[in-house]
Amino acid sequence: MRKILLSILFGLILIGFPILVSSDYYQHLVILAMMWVIIGSSWNILAGYTGQVSFGHAMFFGIGAYTAGILVVHLEISAWWGMLLGGITSMMIGLFVGWVCFRLRGPYFALATLAGGEIFRLIATNWESLTQGMVGILIIQTFPSKLPYYYIVLALAFVCILTIHLVMKSKWGYYFLSIREDQDAAESLGINTTLYKNLSLLISAFFTGMAGAFYMNYMAFIDPHVVFSLHYISIMAILVGIVGGVATIMGPAVGAFIMVGLQETFRSAFFGLAPQWTSQAHALVFGLLVIFVILFLPNGIVGDWPKIKRNVFRVKATG
Amino acid sequence: MAILEVKNLSKHFGGLKAVDDVSFQVQDGEIMGLIGPNGSGKTTIFNCINHYYPITSGDILFKGRSIKGMKTHRICHLGIGRTFQVVKPLARMSVLDNVTASAFSRTHTIGEARKEALKVLDFCNLDDQRDKLARSLPIGGRKRLEIARALATKPELMLLDETAAGLTPGELDEAIDLIKKMRESGVTILIVEHIMKVIMTISDRIHAINFGQTIGEGTPAEVANNPAVVEAYLGESYAHS
Prior knowledge:
The complex is a heterodimer.
Chain A: H1 2-20, H2 24-49, H3 57-75, H4 81-101, H5 108-126, H6 128-131, E1 137-138, H7 147-168, H8 171-181, H9 183-188, H10 193-219, E2 221-222, H11 224-227, H12 230-244, H13 251-267, H14 282-296, H15 300-303, H16 305-318
Antiparallel strand pairs in A: 1-2
Helix pairs in contact in A: 2-7, 2-10, 2-12, 2-13, 3-4, 3-5, 3-10, 3-12, 4-10, 7-10, 8-10, 12-13
Chain B: E1 2-13, E2 16-27, E3 31-35, H1 42-49, E4 57-62, E5 65-66, H2 72-78, E6 80-82, H3 95-103, H4 110-123, H5 139-151, E7 157-161, H6 169-184, E8 188-192, H7 196-202, E9 205-210, E10 213-218, H8 220-224, H9 227-234, H10 236-239
Parallel strand pairs in B: 3-8, 3-9, 6-7, 7-8
Antiparallel strand pairs in B: 1-2, 1-4, 4-5, 9-10
Helix pairs in contact in B: 3-4, 3-5, 4-5
């Protein structure tokens, strides 16, 4: 009951936020954070719940973004159609990757996704007639204000989390967890492990592709090095999941806000308060953060919340 | 009627003949024991029936229909359940969730799956453990969880792989009761077991193998007095004494 009230309160804060805070800058940050909620949650259903770790979610993100961009450039169709089509195209690519890799066990899938992200970055760079190569794709933003984007991404993040929540409460969810825990046992219980690994991948690819298409619409500019970036997308998706809490519903959401907040704090050199060189230190701090989380909070902030509460409480009681 | 027919089954790993031309039948409703010294190929036979690996030659028929080459999860849906010698609990899931996941093989709704799971947990005397994580169970509980999980798929034939190994004497009696109860509920059982107290008391018939080959078959008393079986277990000098 407290959980539900807390969720409603949190939802109301998010809905009211752009009305209370009119600064474009802060609205922009929350929009980015919510986009990362979608990507992190998508990564989580595949890696956290189904146990199939992806090192290449930039692949699905970039495909979604490019689908939306290419619709505008070549077919002169609104990039908003890309939201749906981008998700579907990502699913198609995901289906192919899964079809090839999921019949094998072990690290093959993780390695294939890593390679896949890089392959698509090179394709996007070199297939200039389709993607305009390194020049990137520039479109005209639909809305001058940030508000519509804010509510679109909020709705999308909500749908994404709700979908994953419902899936995990269904037969599929039980099957995903069983596969993560033991594939041999899962097979003997009548679970078609190849099929269900693919289903998990499809859900993940769909939402990540949608997030990519949203990015195209929102930023109005993409190039291969941004949307297919190993560093800024694939690794970030993993960090969001790990920091927030792998295999928890709200973990990636919490992780997304923390990571985007941290990234921006460093990028802006502590909002201009610290010397300029600190803006270069964000990768270092991310690394330290991951080490800290793995050592002390292996289940992430949400997964280890009881532990955090207990320790903080004890500090208060004795101090 | 034979529910399971293993016909001239062979499984070779390179030059090693793990199972070599083994044939036997399991009759509907019986408890059949499969015995043999360590490394004689018992678990390999189970893995062949389950299709964890493809068989080299021969055939396996379930209710008169060949299941050779069929995927493991399809075989489960046909009605063959199995437990593992080295238990494979879904460690980070609760006991109830373990069984619920397997109950989904016969239903699609969470409500029904949960109902079935609770029924099976009750049947296996695990209902007081249902909210514990599977990894926190002691070995006796894990062995029973293996059975519960396999039962939740509603098998007609159950393959039990050393369910009694590692149990205390008290747990052993419970295991025997559970296996008998299972048979009474209409499940045919093929059981691999080293503990003679278990295999001799519950089996209707026993099939004995050594080095992947059949060395005897019959009632528990017949097999116990079979010279080839005695030799395999105790050495040649005992076989003729």
